[in-house]
Amino acid sequence: MSTDLAIIGAGPAGMAAAIEAAALGLSVAVIDENPAPGGQIFRGVERAGGDPALGPDYAEGLALARAFRAAPIAYHPATALWHLDPEEGHLSLDGAPDLTARRVLLATGAQERPVPIPGWTLPGVMTAGAAQILLKTAGMVPVGRTVLAGQGPLLHLLAAQLGRAGASPVLILETTPPGRRRAALAKGGFWAGRRLLAKGLGLLAETRAIPRHCAVTGLRAEGRNRVERIAWEGGSARCDTLLLHEGVIPATHIPLALGLEMRWDPVQQCWHPAVDAYGASSHPNVAVAGDGAGIGGWEAAVAAGHLAALDAARRLGRLAAEDFAGRARPWLRRRREALALRPFLDALYAPAPASIPDTTIACRCEEVTAGQIRAAARLGATGPNQMKAYLRCGMGPCQGRLCGTTVAALIAEARGSTAETVGLYRPRAPYKPITVGALARL
Amino acid sequence: MRRMQSDSFDAIVIGGGLVGAAIAWGLQRQGLATVLLDEGDVAYRASRGNFGLVWVQSKGLGAPWYQRWTRTSAGAWPGLAAELAERTGADIGLAQPGGVHLCLSEAEFEARAARMARMRAEAGNAGFDYRMLRAAELRDMLPGLGPSVTGASWTPYDGHANPLRLLHALHRAFVEAGGAYVPEAKVTEGQAAPHDFAVAAGGRRFAAPRVVLAAGLGNAELAPLFGLAAPVRPQRGQVLVTERAAALLPMPVTTIRQTQEGSLMLGDSMEEVGFDLRQKPEVMREIARRAVLSFPWIGGLNIVRAWSALRVMAPDGLPIYDQSARYPGAFTANCHSGVTLAGAHAHLLAPMIAAGALDPALEPFTAGRFDVRAAS
Known about the structure:
The structure holds two protein chains of two kinds.
Chain A lengths: L1 E7 L3 H12 L4 E4 L13 H4 L8 H14 L3 E3 L3 E6 L4 E5 L4 E8 L3 E3 L12 E3 H11 L7 E6 L1 H12 L6 E4 L5 H6 L8 H13 L5 E2 L6 E3 L6 E4 L2 E4 L2 E6 L1 E3 L2 H6 L3 E4 L4 E4 L12 E3 L9 H18 L5 H18 L3 H7 L12 E3 L4 E2 H10 L4 H8 L12 H12 L3 H4 L11 E2 H5 L2
Parallel strand pairs in A: 1-2, 1-6, 2-3, 6-19, 8-15, 9-10, 9-15, 10-11
Antiparallel strand pairs in A: 4-5, 5-6, 7-16, 12-13, 13-14, 17-18, 20-21
Helix pairs in contact in A: 1-3, 1-9, 4-5, 5-7, 9-10, 12-14
Chain B lengths: L5 E3 L2 E4 L3 H12 L4 E4 L15 E2 L9 H25 L10 E5 L2 H18 L7 E4 H7 L9 E5 L3 E2 L2 H14 L3 E3 L4 E7 L2 E6 L2 E5 L2 E3 L5 H4 L10 E12 L11 E3 L4 E4 L14 H14 L7 E12 L6 E4 L6 E5 L7 H14 L12 H8 L1
Parallel strand pairs in B: 1-12, 2-3, 2-13, 3-9, 13-19
Antiparallel strand pairs in B: 4-8, 5-7, 6-7, 10-11, 11-12, 14-16, 14-17, 15-16, 18-19
Helix pairs in contact in B: 1-5, 1-8, 2-5, 2-8
C-alpha cells in the first residue's frame, strides 16, 4: 500500500498532524503501538476521558481523539514499526501490511529519564510514569505507603492525581538542588506562560498537605525482597511503593537508527533530533514532531503536529507557499505560547548531578553495574557502542532505551569527558521486538 | 611526519578487533612490549558483528592448507579460553561439541555430500572426520527439527564461543599483562624501514622494530605504506538474535546457534554491497524463513536485536598473512574468521611474528598468490 504521509505515533502530535494532513487532502496512515489513540499523555482517553482524577486536560485530549477518529485516516493501532527505509519510504510493520510513504513523520514522544539509585530494581519501585499508566488504563493505584521521589511537573501531577483517586502519597522527596529556583526565575516567560504556570501552581496547592523534603540527595531504596524503606542523606521513611521521576527526555531510538542529525541539550542533558520550525529533520523525507523533537508538552506537540502536516502538504505540492504561511502562522504562535514557560521549567528541573555507586545496576536488562561500566571505560571503551561490545549493556529487550543516558554519563565521568562527546548507542532494526515467525511470514 | 617524541615499543599492532587483539595478546604474552592501536566508538569493526562460530567443517575446499590452519586453531582454542579465564575470570562460553550443516532440500543434501567427500580427499593424511546424516537420524540429535530438513553434514571439530566476551577478555588480558591499549588512535601516517617503523595515531607517535597490520578493511590502505598488499573488500552479513530460551540446541548449526545465555543467533547473509551497513528487511526475512524451516519452534521467539556488519574478504575468501620483503618486520593479518582463528593467531602466529619469520605452512596465504593468478 502507498500513502502520502505515514505518521508514527498517535499521541497529540501524531493525531493533530493526521487530522490536518487529511483535511489538506493528503492520504494519511497512522501507525501506533497502542490499541487506542492518545499516546502516553492521553492514554485510554476515550474510555477514561471524563475521569475527574485525571484532570481537565484529559477532556481536551478526548476532543482531539474524537476528531482523529472522525477524519479519513488509515489508522493502524496495535502495530509496530520495526524498520524504516527512508530513501525508499518503505515501512516494515508488525501488525499490519508494510507501507510505502512519500513522507514520514515520527511522533514517537518521550520517555522517562532513568533514575539509577541503589535499590531501584527492587519490586515495589517503579517510575511515576508507569504508575500513571496503571492509573489511566486500569484505574489502579498503589496500596500502602507511597513515596514520590525526584522532580519535574509529572511528579506533582501524579501526586495530585493519586490524591484525587484516594491514594495520596505519604511523602514527596524533591531532588531539585538548592539555588535552582533563583536561576530558573531569571528565565522569565511567566506572562506568556501564565496558563501553564497557574496549572502548575494549582497542582502544588492541591498537594500542599503532603509532607515533603526538598533538595534531597543520596536516595536509596532498601528492603529484602521488595522495597521497605526509602533513605536519603539525613533521613529515611517506611515505604511500600516508591515512584521515581527525574523528568522526561525525547525518545531518540528511531531517529538514531535512521542516523538523523542530533543535538545535545546542555540544560536538560539529553539528545534530540535537529529539526527546523516545521519539524523537518536532516533527512529530506523524514520529519519529527512533538516531544520526540524536544520536550514541550502536549499543547506544543499539537501545534508541531499541525505544522509538520502543513509542511508535508507543501513539500508534496498540495499547498502553495503563500497558503502555507497563512495557515502556519497561528500554529507557530500557539506553539510559542505553549513553550513560553519551558526555559523556566528546564532550568528549574535540570537533572541534579548525582554519583551512582559502583554496585548500582545501570543496565537492568543485562544487569550491568555502574562499577563494571567505569572499569571498562578505564580499560578503553570510549563510547557506548564499544561498552556494549565489552559488557552487553544495551543489548537486552529495551535495546539501550533505559540505560543509554546513564552509560554515557558514566563513561564521561570515568574518562574525564562529557556525555555530549561520548555519544550515543547506534540502535538497529528491529526497533521493537518481532517474532521470527512474523518476520518469516510462513 | 611531524617531529615529535615517539613512544617506543617492541611491536605495534594496528587494529583492536579480534585479529589485532589476539595477536597483541600473543606478543605481549611472549614478553614483547606491545602497543595496540584502535579506532574510536564508531567504526566498521567486524569483530562487533561476529556470529561466534569456531567453525571448521566448510573451510578450505580446494585449499587444504586453510582447512589445516582452521583445524589447528580450533585445537588451540581450549588453551586460549582457559588462559583468558585464568587471567581475567571471563567465561568466553567456548563449547566444541561438533556441529552440523542443515540441508533443506534433496539437492542441497547431494551438493553437501559431494563437498564433504572432496574435503576428505583433499585432507590426505591429515584426515577429515565427517558424516552425512539423514533427517531421521538427525532428529535424535537436534530436537524440534522441521519437516523441511532433508539431512545434514556433521563434523566433530566445530564449536562456538561468545565473540564479544572474547574481545573484552583479550583486551583485558593484554592490558593486565602490561600491554598498552590506545583507543581513538586511527593511524594517519606510517614510516617504514627494515625493522624500524613509526606510525602517527591519535595525536601521538609510536615506534617499534615490528608492526602488524590487523586493521580489517583498513588494511587495504595501510598495507602499501609498509611494502605489503592487502586486497580486501567488504562483504555485508546480517544477523538476527532472539530473546533467551531454554537450552534446546545441543550443538551449533552453520546458521543457527544457541548462546550460553540461551539466545538463538540466526545468520547470516553474504552481500556484495560495498561499504553499506544498512539492514535490509528482505534479507532479514530470508534468514528468519530458513531458521523457521529448520526449527519451527524458533518462529515463536521474539527477535530482540539484529545487525549488519562488514566481513573482511580477500578475493578468494581465504586469509592473507605476509611479512614485507622490502621492510622485514612488517606483517599483515587479514581474515573474516576472527573468532575461529583466534586460537591460531594468539598461540601460533604471534610467536612467528615475535621470532621474525612466518612458518612455511603460512606461505600459501601470501597476497602474492593474487599477482600469480593475474599473471598466469
